[in-house]
Amino acid sequence: MQIKDLHQHFLDFPSVSTDTRKINDNCIFFALKGDNFNGNTYAEEALEKGAAFVVVDEKEYAVSNRYILVDDVLKTLQDLANYHRNYCSAKVIGLTGSNGKTTTKELIHGVLSKKYRTIATQGNLNNHIGVPLTLLSIQEDTEIAIVEMGANHQKEIAFLSAIAQPDFGYITNFGKAHLEGFGGVEGVIKGKSELYDYLLANHKSVFINADDPIQLEKLGGYIQKYGFSTQNQAYYKIESLGADPFVQLKVEDMVINTQLIGVYNFTNCAIAICMGKYFNVDLPSIKKAIEAYTPENNRSQIIEKHGSTIILDAYNANPTSMQAALESFEETGKNPKIVLLGDMFELGEAAGEEHQKITDIVLEMDLEDAYFIGENFYSTQTSFQKFNSVDEIVSFLRSNPLPKNSTLLIKGSRGMALERLLDFI
């Protein structure tokens, strides 16, 4: 079946599923394959649960006209998403970076939604499957789509950019994330910059943090760039008023009080404000959107418990975000201060060195105590207590409760699932 014909089916039944546990009535089910499953084997179940059609790539499963046989289901999903992206008139904003992508996406979405019919990536569906699903959620009346793009190796952002074909783009930062896949920090810069490469090659517009020397160097004299800065008068000026404990900004004599902790969230807010101004959202509406955003899903959440203030930042971690969180933590909050840090993943050969750097930073901080959790931290040299696993520190906390009326930072990679510690604090 040609993509244009499949797209007509999609227009008639504009809902897509890749999981039989999440079948909507009259959706189109794409029978994707994984390392441990074959979606073709679930095609019949999808129809029984209410799917209008199923897309399969193994001939023996195409037993009726409700089965659409293609050469490769994943490629078909990606091609359909690209076709639909060009069928609709929505402007697409591509977003990538090492840290802060999801928070930035939500802030931009909140701001632009004040004036436009806007959709954005749901959760962190930002890979070779998530990006197509986001594009397929664009409706005919959608005016702006914010598409988050994640990557852990070279050429991935280039591939996703070719599917999404963004009209605008922004890179949050270049940090020490996925060093193993990218091959070091220079590899991260090169990989994330593939978004810029696409935009420049196609004469599209770029948004930048003009205080980031890497972004300025990458873009040079490129004309179609817009951005913010705290100092550079050539860009939209946004002033940081600190973060004690919440980020405050000043724009055109208007103070914006956010519900975000950590000075590292300043740039996330600033780009949302900058884009709002570019797209002619009035400043009072921008202020309202930024101030209404509340972090969730273990991203810099503030939790009050037993007289203590807990900063739960357990969604993800890498050396750059870990150091930024520690620096911000040291400047805010009441004493006594305690940190509970979990391993940072996907660092490859740099894992030992990067974990030791973090323990050294912690040693110089004014803290009541610190606890390191995970195999990588367990291998470091430090005077603070170390635990091989979350289960080990849970056993410890059962008989050694942390002091009440403290300020705690809990941060680690998603795989550590450090939110489990909340029940024992």
Give your account of this protein's structure:
This protein is an alpha/beta fold and 425 residues long. It folds into 3 domains: 3-72, Udp-n-acetylmuramoylalanyl-d-glutamate--2,6- Diaminopimelate Ligase, Chain: A, domain 1; 88-292, UDP-N-acetylmuramoyl-L-alanine:D-glutamate ligase (3-Layer(aba) Sandwich), CATH 3.40.1190; 301-424, Protein-Tyrosine Phosphatase, Chain A, CATH 3.90.190.20. 35% of the residues lie in helices and 21% in strands. It contains 16 helices and 20 strands. It has helices at residues 3-12, 43-48, 73-87, 101-112, 130-135, 156-164, 179-182, 185-192, 194-201, 213-219, 266-278, 283-292, 319-331, 351-363, 375-378, 390-399, and strands at residues 16-17, 28-30, 53-56, 67-69, 91-96, 118-120, 144-148, 168-171, 205-209, 225-229, 236-237, 239-243, 246-251, 254-261, 301-305, 308-313, 337-342, 369-373, 385-387, 407-411. The strands form 4 sheets. Strands 6-7-5-8-9-10-11 form a 7-stranded parallel beta sheet, with helices on both faces. It has a 6-stranded mixed beta sheet with strand order 15-16-20-17-18-19. Strands 1-2-3-4 form a 4-stranded parallel beta sheet. Strand 17 (337-342), helix 14 (351-363) and strand 18 (369-373) form a beta-alpha-beta unit. Helix 11 runs antiparallel to helix 12. The longest helix has 15 residues, at 73-87. It is globular, with a radius of gyration of 23 Å. The chain starts with a helix and ends in a 14-residue tail after the last strand. The mean pLDDT is 93. Keywords: ATP-binding, Cell cycle, Cell division, Cell shape, Cell wall biogenesis/degradation, Cytoplasm, Ligase, Nucleotide-binding, Peptidoglycan synthesis. It catalyses: D-alanyl-D-alanine + UDP-N-acetyl-alpha-D-muramoyl-L-alanyl-gamma-D-glutamyl-meso-2,6-diaminopimelate + ATP = UDP-N-acetyl-alpha-D-muramoyl-L-alanyl-gamma-D-glutamyl-meso-2,6-diaminopimeloyl-D-alanyl-D-alanine + ADP + phosphate + H(+). Its main location: cytoplasm.
